[in-house]
Amino acid sequence: MPNESIRPASSGALLPVVLALSMACAAPDAGRDTAREDTVAAVPADSVAARDTSPANVGAVVTVYFSRGDSVVPVTRTVDDADLASAIRALLRGPTAAERAAGLSSWFSDSTADMLRSVGIDTAGTAVIDFADLRPVIPNASASAGSAMLLRELNATVFAHDEVSAVQYRIEGSCDAFWEWLQYGCQTVQRPAR
Questions:
Q1: Using CA atoms, how far apart are residues 185 and 174, in angstroms rounded to an integer?
Q2: How far does the chain reach from its first CA to its final CA, in angstroms?
Q3: Least confident span in 84-88, 94-98, 108-112, 141-145
Q4: Which residue has the higher pLDDT, 133 or 32?
Q5: Contacts for 42 with CB less than 8 Å, ≥ 6 apart
Q6: Which of 66, 63, 88 shows the shortest CA–CA distance to 77?
Q7: Which of 25, 92, 80 shows the shortest CA–CA distance to 49?
Q8: Are 134 and 117 in contact (CB under 8 A)?
Q9: Pairing of strands 166-171, 126-131
Q10: Distance of alpha carbon 32 from alpha carbon 160, whole angstroms
Q11: How far, in Å, CA of 22 to CA of 166, rounded?
Q12: Burial code of 43-68, b = ≥16 C-beta within 10 A, e = fewer?
């Protein structure tokens, strides 16, 4: 489902209708994201900014990716803002019970839902995503198949955002900690060629 902004001709007349429809259509597990992404500097994931309820930001949709076998499957989530931070928070919540019953899997779940510390994108398009310490919560992700699954889901979700050309993952601010957990050296992941 493409990210489309809702732009009514007369915001005064249609705004209550748009708000009512977006709330009625929201997924029950979507939650309400209030943190805003700063496109230059990282913003803590739990910071609360003034909520923008303009029609363009009501009931936005992001795409996140979960695993089915050795591939990823896109699913959508309704969030406040169709930005990278909202997508990563939605990914960290994991698949719904219905999605798991339909064969989707992920390391991400209710246990990882609140483990995003910050997201930032610099002017060159490099995203920096900093997590709380995921290692004790999902220790088996360090196996080769486990790390491949985790990275497929993260990378697919991140690169669904056209403004991102590369991404650096961190745990508690450390690139080394994230990549050593997955048995690699610190690295920046580049957008795959299209």
A1: 12
A2: 20
A3: 141-145
A4: 133
A5: 118, 119, 120, 128, 130
A6: 63
A7: 80
A8: no
A9: parallel
A10: 21
A11: 32
A12: bebeeeeeeeeebebbbbbbbbbbbe
